[in-house]
Write a structure and sequence with these properties.
The protein is α+β, with helices and mostly antiparallel strands. About 35% of the residues lie in helices and about 35% in strands. The strands form two sheets. Strands 2-9-13-12-11-14 form a six-stranded antiparallel β-barrel. It has a four-stranded antiparallel beta sheet with strand order 6-5-3-8. Helix 1 packs antiparallel against helix 2 and helix 3 packs antiparallel against helix 4. The protein is elongated. The two termini are about 55 Å apart.
């Protein structure tokens, strides 16, 4: 239908609708027709230009995107687990006073190593010296009584045999001797007790280790009960414990992996552990697990465990929080990919696989544990497949790519950088 006919029909229709004599509106409408006709002509000309003949040249295609690929290979990967632990002394001893008295002197340097038997504190010994002298005097008295009772017994025995003395005198003499002997033994025990108490006035280190701050100052009254009896604490640093806990779910997952054959576990007695300090440095000594509890803590749902480390240089101190890495065994026939090859896609994780025609195919994967060197892939990849490890930004799904080596990729990136700098 021509543009003139279309405009004529519009004018006719408008005249029929406004047949009641609105001639003024009809004149206004007819006045606008030249402008509408010019607009329609411009639109038709544009459409014809867009739908005209084909261009002379063929459509240009983008060149393949250079990427670095790696081949999926099966390997035995050491499986480790990481825990948070707290260091503790091999032995921690509270040094307490065994006798009461005034603290006269501290004979060690706080925070410095001490050896077993070294004198640490001195409590006023004078009262205990007096007690020892009294005990010795009592012992001398009992010794004199024992000597007399022994002489009486030796005299009465032959007299009693000749029936010179009565049975009652004999029994009394023998009883006096036995009583004197018992009293003498008690007096001897009192002397030993007094000697011990006197020796306890010099408080010595029960073990070798690092002595802590003194809990009491000179001049304080020390008693054998309560907090006033605590003088200091000695901690043995070598070897050193690291206490940690692992969940019941971790234990079940480990046992399940061993039963399924995915994991070849090491002997529990030879599980090696390493610790990383707060500054990120790795402690040079390798430790061993030496304890795992036989029950689950009902409050936390965890199982307590402990590792032991050599600490001859004293780099570790009790109370430090460290990250422990425990070698559990070997993951058999595992697939390991570098973390940079994994792409996040909403809730899924994908790896960009390159097929036989060098086209990019996104592949959803199920990730396993992160280990040294990469991330374990539980499912989604097969041995022999190729996946992109570098160049993911331009490797869109379905795009054609060109696998290159890592050195070639560096050269390409350097060239692009130079071109960008030249512009």
């Amino acid at each position: 239908m021509s543009l003139t006919r279309l405009v004529g029909e519009q004018c006719t229709g408008r005249q029929k609708v406004h047949a009641d004599g609105q001639a003024k509106e009809q004149r206004i409408t007819m006045g606008r027709l030249p402008f509408r006709r010019a607009g329609m002509t411009l639109i038709l000309a544009t459409l014809l230009a867009g739908c005209g003949g084909e261009p002379d040249g063929k459509a240009q295609t983008l060149p393949p995107v250079p990427v670095v690929v790696a081949e999926v290979k099966l390997s035995d990967v050491p499986l480790t687990t990481e825990m948070v632990g707290e260091t503790a002394g091999f032995r921690e001893i509270d040094v307490r006073s065994r006798v009461s008295g005034i603290l006269l002197q501290r004979t060690y340097i706080e925070g410095q190593p001490v050896t077993a038997g070294q004198a640490l504190f001195l409590i006023d010994p004078e009262p205990y010296k007096v007690a020892l002298e009294q005990a010795k005097g009592t012992l001398a008295q009992e010794q004199a009584r024992l000597n007399k009772a022994l002489a009486d017994r030796d005299r009465i025995i032959p007299l009693y045999k000749r029936q010179v003395v009565s049975r009652q005198d004999y029994d009394t003499t023998i009883a006096n001797y036995e009583a004197a002997l018992a009293s003498h033994q008690a007096a001897q025990a009192k002397v030993k007790e007094a000697e011990l108490n006197l020796s306890y006035t010099q408080v010595t280190a029960p073990i070798s280790g690092m002595a802590s701050k003194s809990s009491q100052s000179e001049g304080s009254l020390i008693s054998t009960s309560g907090d006033s009896g605590l003088l200091t604490t000695i901690t043995q640093f070598d070897p050193l414990y690291v206490n940690f806990s692992y969940s019941e779910q971790d234990r079940l997952n480990f046992e399940s992996a061993v039963k399924s054959g995915k994991l070849e576990a090491f002997d529990a007695n030879s599980w090696h552990t390493r610790i990383r300090l707060a500054d990120g440095s790795l402690y040079p000594q390798v430790g061993k697990l030496n304890f795992s509890d036989n029950r689950v803590d009902p409050q936390t749902g965890t199982i307590r465990a402990r590792a032991i480390f050599d600490n001859k240089e004293g780099k570790l101190l009790p109370g430090q929080f460290v990250r422990m890495t425990i070698e559990l065994g070997l993951r058999k026939n595992a697939i390991l990919v570098p973390p940079r090859a994994i792409v996040q896609s909403q809730a899924d994780r994908m790896v960009m696989v390159v097929d036989e025609t060098n086209k990019v195919v996104p592949r959803p994967v199920k990730l396993g544990q992160s280990v040294d060197g990469g991330v374990l892939i539980d499912s989604g990849l097969a041995p022999g497949e190729r996946y992109i490890v570098e160049g993911l930004m331009k490797a869109r799904p379905g795009a054609q790519v060109k696998p290159v080596s890592a050195d070639e990729m560096k050269a390409i990136q350097a060239k692009l950088t130079q071109q960008a700098a030249g512009k």
